[in-house]
Structure formats: structure tokens, C-alpha cells
Amino acid sequence: MLDKMRKIIEDNNLIEQGDRIIVAISGGPDSVCLLHALYQIREEYNLELYGAHLNHNFRGIEAQIDAQYVSNLCDDLNILCFIKSMDVPQYAKENGLSPEEAGRILRYDFFEEVAERVGATKIAVAHNENDQAETVLMRLLRGTGLQGLTAIHINRGKIIRPLLNIDRNSIEEYCEIHKLSPRIDKTNLESIYKRNKIRLELIPYLEENYNPNIKDNLVKTAEILKDDFDFIEEKAREVYKELVNLQRDDSLILPLQSIKELHPALQSRVIRLSAEQLLGRQEVLEYKHVQNVLELIERGATGKKIVLPLGLVAKISYENLCFSTGEEDNKLFHYELPLEDTFYMEELKGSFTVRVVDRGEVKEISRDKYHKCFDYDQVKSILNVRNRREGDRFYPLGLTGSKKLKDFFIDYKIDRNERDRIPLVCDGDEIMWIVGLRISEKYKITDKTTRILEIIFRND
Questions:
Q1: Predicted confidence band at 299 (pLDDT cuts at 50, 70, 90)?
Q2: Which of 83, 127, 306, 380 is a good FRET partner for 370, with 20 to 30 A between their CA atoms?
Q3: Region 232-256: what's the mean pLDDT?
Q4: At which positions is ATP bound (predicted)?
Q5: pLDDT category of residue 347 using cuts at 50, 70 and 90
Q6: Is-contact 49 194, C-beta < 8 A?
């Protein structure tokens, strides 16, 4: 088995000289075998190994015994071990996730946390060939796409799976030879979960009645489909980069019509990539979630939104599909703008530069939407910047009368949740400039203007 693992590592470039590796250890045969086997080859690769065990709090005292076993095993091998307990059932309930999905998310978050703490370059997990076959079959029965059928990948980012092409019998035999006495989760021997039923009932039935090599064939199928998936995924990432036209840490915007024109295979991937970009993790959205977003796109009604896993929100805003995370921040702001100075605003992550000059110093009036000039002789009060207030009106440049600010935003197709973020430069209560959109007719430069107020807004 050790030779098989070495070959897997070499064929897939899973480990490099001097790697620091976090080994995920549940205490079961697979992870115990993985830790011990990596320990055997540590000098060949000059490895630094660390153990990581998460107690999911599903199994009471049994889970605590598992944690103690892992601690003792790492002590015997002189390996530093990190153990953490988390309320996975509560997390699943709060985020609308299945217990299995919640456990997976929190496990990998914990592994990343430990990796960052010790400066690890890899995170080794103990999925094996049987896991791969079971996963392909389970996803096929549940209904899935090409990505789902590629099942478990041998490496992805920091994650490596050195045992993925090794069968469970070889792993258990390794544990017996080395007298490792791993912990056995008794629930794995009962047909109470779908995966257990596939492992204990369906695969043996298929082996006996249809194909004795069913596990090997399922694994080969996943490998073949992964090549096709990788090609389409590369194309999808190229398309995604072209489509994203506004991106912040907590939101991104995609043009609705451009998404509608994509091939369905690319549509679903662009949606998944959007979730991955904002949440920082892959495989957040299931098939049903992607379909919900596609239905939202098809309806195309402004203001309609759906809530996805982990607080991700998809929303239609006029011609755009918007993804965002976290709460909307609609805090009020109001600041005086100093003359002949630059004023930074944390709320906008940007700054205003204000100066007054004689008309003769300005050779050309800027047409930049964030660089505007005004007739300073018309300014009657204190210059300030604020966001909108109830009842605001505005005299748009080129019009003879005033317009409700709300109607102006509607005409410009500014989403309701974005309106509070747009700064208004004002003369007292009078709106001079809706930053980035339009200045007021009352403050435009004319032949009678003697002094010019120049205001520039810059984002970080």
C-alpha cells in the first residue's frame, strides 16, 4: 500500500520537498492509515506533519473518545495535533444546510485555520477509491451534472488525497499490519444513511448481479469525465472574467442579457463561480440552487431576489444580476466639505478634493463624471456631502424644473439598495451634484461665472 501511495504522490505531484502538511484525522482506518503512511515517508520528502481533528458533536461520548485516540496517536508519533469541538448540528440549522454539508464546510474551515497558523502548504485528507465509487453512484442516483460525476478530485488548491486510488481493503490491512487499532464509527456499519446503504447494500448487489468490477469502473468514469470538466471549466472562467463589470469584497454584478445569451453549460458555471468568488470556497451551490438562480434570471423582474446558502443573495437589478453577502449597509452620512483640501470618507472608501479658482485658470471644463466644475458665485451656504433624505428634489442639468430625487434614480435605473450609497454634494440643503451622475442646472458654468468650484471624487 505504501508503494501505491508513493506512486500516486509522484504521478500527481501531490507533495514537494519540504512541505508542511496538515493531516485531517477522524480516528477511523482511512485517516489513521494516511497519517501513519505519511509519517513513514516523511524523511524522503523532508516533511513536517501536523494532525487536525474536529469533533462535530454528533456522537456524544464516542466522539470525545475519538478525539482522545487521535491525540494519543499523534503523541506516539511525536506529531503536533490540533483538536477543536464545534456545534455542527446548530450551524447546519442556522444556515439551512444538511448535517453532512455543514460538517464538510466547518471541517475545511478548521483545516485552513490550522494551515494558516503553522504555515502549512498542503492539507491531506483520506478519501479512498471506495469513497470515490460511492460518491459517483450517490450523485448519479441523486441527479447531478458533469461536475458532480467527477466526484472527488485528487488535489484542489492545498487539498491533497494521497489514498484516493487505493481500495479500503488495502487500507484496513495496512492498519492491521502496523497494529494501529483505529476507531470504528458504528454508524458506518448501519444502513441509516444514504451513503451507508450504497456502501453496504447497493454496491455489493451490483457486484454480485451485474459487474464485479463496478467500483473500478465508477472510478474510471470519474477520471474520464474530469478531463472534459476541466476543459469546460477553463472556458467558463474566461467568460466569467469578461462578464464581471463591478466587483467588491461583498458583491459583484453581471450583465443579465449576456448571461442569457450563454450556453446553459456556461450559465450554470458562471453562477457557481460567482458564489465561489464571494464566499471563498468551491461547491457552495447545489444543482437546485443554480436552477433557482436561472429561474430568477428568466423572470428578470427588478427587485426580485433569492437567498442562497451561507447568506449569499442573488438579486435582479434592472439589466444586471447581482450577488452579495452580508447585511445591506444603509447608514446615514453627512460631512462638511473643506475648501482647498482633500477629504476622505470611510463610508465611500474614497476622497473629495475641493478648490476654488478664477475662471481664467480653467482652460477646459471637465467632462469626467467624477470631476465636475460649478459656478462658485451661486453657492450660498456650507458645502457638504451626504446621502439622500426623504423628500429630496433636484434640478437636473438641462431641465427647467425640479425632479424628485427618487424619480431621478428610477430613471437612471439605480437599484433601491444602492441609492443610499450615492453621495450628494450640497450647498446647504440644495443638491449640487449627484456624484457620478448629474450636476444641478442651478450651479452650471455660464458666461457670467467669475469663480469656479472644482470638485474631484476618487475611489481607493
A1: confident
A2: 380
A3: 85
A4: 26-31
A5: confident
A6: no
Residue 31 labelled as part of a binding site: yes
CA pair distance 222, 147, nearest whole angstrom? 9
Q: CA quadruple 434, 438, 440, 443: dihedral positive or negative?
A: positive
Q: What is the mean pLDDT of residues 330-347?
A: 83
Rounded CA-CA distance 105/275 in Å is 14
**148 burial via Cβ count (<10 Å: 0-12, 13-18, 19+):** buried
Query: Cα separation of 389 and 393, whole Å?
Result: 9
26 annotated to bind ligand: yes
- Whether 326 shows a pLDDT value over 80: the answer reads no
Tell me: is residue 377 an annotated ligand-binding position. no
Half-sphere exposure of 206 (CA within 13 A, CB side): 16
| 271 closest CA partner among 252, 248, 247 | 252
Secondary-structure class of domain 244-324 per CATH: alpha beta
Report the 10 Å Cβ neighbour count for 160: 24
Q: Which long-range contacts (CB under 8 A, 24 or more apart) does 344-348 make?
A: 345/385, 345/423, 347/421, 348/421, 348/423, 348/459
pLDDT at 85 over 60: yes
Say if residue 338 carries a ligand binding annotation: no
Is residue 205 within a helix (H) or strand (E), and if so which, with residue range?
helix 203-209
Between these two residues, 357 and 317, which has the higher pLDDT value? 357
* Separation between Cα atoms, residue 428 and residue 433, nearest integer Å: 12
Q: Mean pLDDT for the chain?
A: 89
How far is it, in rounded angstroms, from Cα 142 to Cα 121? Answer: 34
**Alpha carbon distance 179, 188 (integer Å):** 21
CATH of 334-459, one of 3.50.40.10, 2.60.40.420, 2.40.50.140, 3.40.190.10: 3.50.40.10
**Using CA atoms, how far apart are residues 285 and 292, in angstroms rounded to an integer?**
10
Helix (H) or strand (E) holding 374: strand 371-375
Domain boundaries, the chain: 2-221, 244-324, 334-459
pLDDT above 80 for 203: yes
Q: Is 351 annotated as a binding residue?
A: no
- According to the annotation, is 157 in a ligand binding site? no
